[in-house]
Amino acid sequence: MAEERSESTVTVLVALGANLGIAVAKTAAAVITGSSAMASEAAHSYTDTGNEVLLLFGLRRSARPADRRHPFGYGKERYFWSLLVAVAIFGMGALFAFLQGFGTLFGGGESESDPLVGYVVLAVAFVLEGVSFLQGTRTVLRAAAEEDLPLAAYLRRTDEPTSVSVVMEDAAALIGLIFAFLGLFLHQITGNAFWDGLASLFIGAVLTVVAFLLGRINKDLLIGNQADPRLVSGIRKIFAAAPEIDWVVDIVTMTVGADQVLACARLDFKDGLTSSEVERVCVRLDHDVRGAYPEIGEVFIEPVPRDDPELRARVVARYGESGPLTK
């Protein structure tokens, strides 16, 4: 977990340095060329720079140990700050790009001057964003390989959104740079600012999509996702293999941070066990589960009869008639 946090921190720092330098260069180019697309890209880079600061803050805050007020730790705080990144991308980056685009389309736009400066800045920005994108992509691909998941499945299941946020920001930046180049180029050869304004609108649309995707990822994590189905299946096998267990009635898990899982199990113990025997079994199973899956911080075990009608109704309501009580 410490290694993953360190890798995420490096990814964010690389993105922060790249975005800050790019933002200053784009601002100068926007002033010189009068390009609305370039101004949109400058705003985008300033937003990304602020976002990296938020991600770093979230990484640091989420690493605090559990305490009396937060017995399961602060892992979910990372998701809160990542959600703010999604809000910032739309609220500051996308909306500014839309304003620039519509202002150029309906206001006539400024005459373009010295587009060569814009081309140079875009080329340099593309290289720097590419470096950040490659660093972030390597981190995400390595994490997906460690989880033995295809990239798409990893993005759906990940409990570590920091590197994913950086990769999606950088991907949006690279696409935005392409649109800015096309807007600048078409404005130059046609003399019509329409293309510049249209490029700004496309940049705003890209940022809106990225903000929506990041928002959805972090919304699910904040609400409380179930852990990886493979982990849940592994826990069930450990419980089912115990000779003292008659039936695994229900297992509920929740992601409470990056590589931090809370597990709760309802087990039907074999009849005839004494209370002290049940207690010793619970302690052993807790040790076995956390030993097999270090990411599980807490295991709660509740002895229950599987034929209890109220319990059955609750389990069926969650899983349907084909749930664990009918297997």
Question: Which SSEs are present, and which pair or pack?
Answer:
Layout: H1 2-33, H2 36-62, H3 77-107, H4 115-146, H5 151-157, H6 161-190, H7 194-223, H8 229-241, E1 245-257, E2 260-269, H9 275-292, E3 296-303, H10 309-319
Parallel strand pairs: 2-3
Antiparallel strand pairs: 1-2
Helix pairs in contact: 1-2, 1-4, 1-6, 2-3, 2-6, 2-7, 3-7, 4-5, 4-6, 6-7
Walkthrough of the structure:
This protein is mostly helical and 327 residues long. The chain has two domains: 2-223, Alpha-lytic protease prodomain-like, CATH 1.20.1510; 229-326, Alpha-Beta Plaits (2-Layer Sandwich). 71% of the residues lie in helices and 9% in strands. The chain has ten helices and three strands. The protein has helices spanning 2-33, 36-62, 77-107, 115-146, 151-157, 161-190, 194-223, 229-241, 275-292, 309-319; strands at 245-257, 260-269, 296-303. A three-stranded mixed beta sheet has the order 1-2-3. Helix 1 (2-33) runs antiparallel to helix 2 and helix 2 (36-62) packs parallel to helix 7 (194-223). It is elongated. It starts with a helix and ends in an 8-residue tail after the last helix. 42% of the residues are buried.
CATH topology of the largest domain: Alpha-lytic protease prodomain-like
Helix fraction bin: over 70%
Q: Please tally the β strands and state the result.
A: 3
CATH architecture annotation of the largest domain:
Up-down Bundle
Oligomer description: single chain
Q: What is the straight-line distance between the termini?
A: 36 Å
SSE order, one letter for each helix or strand: HHHHHHHHEEHEH
Instruction: Classify the beta-strand content into a percent band.
Output: 5-15%
Q: Which strand order spans the largest sheet, edge to edge or round the barrel?
A: 1-2-3
Outline the biggest β-sheet. Answer: 3 strands, mixed
Q: What is the SS-derived class? A: mainly alpha
| Average of pLDDT | 84
The CATH top-level class label of the largest domain: Mainly Alpha
Give the CATH superfamily of the largest domain.
Answer: Cation efflux protein transmembrane domain
Number of helices: 10
Shape: elongated
Our count of domains comes out at: 2
Could you list the spans in which at least 5 consecutive residues all have pLDDT below 50? none
C-alpha Rg (nearest Å):
26 Å
Pfam family, one: Cation_efflux
Keywords: Membrane, Transmembrane, Transmembrane helix, Transport
Subcellular location: Membrane
Membrane topology: Multi-pass membrane protein
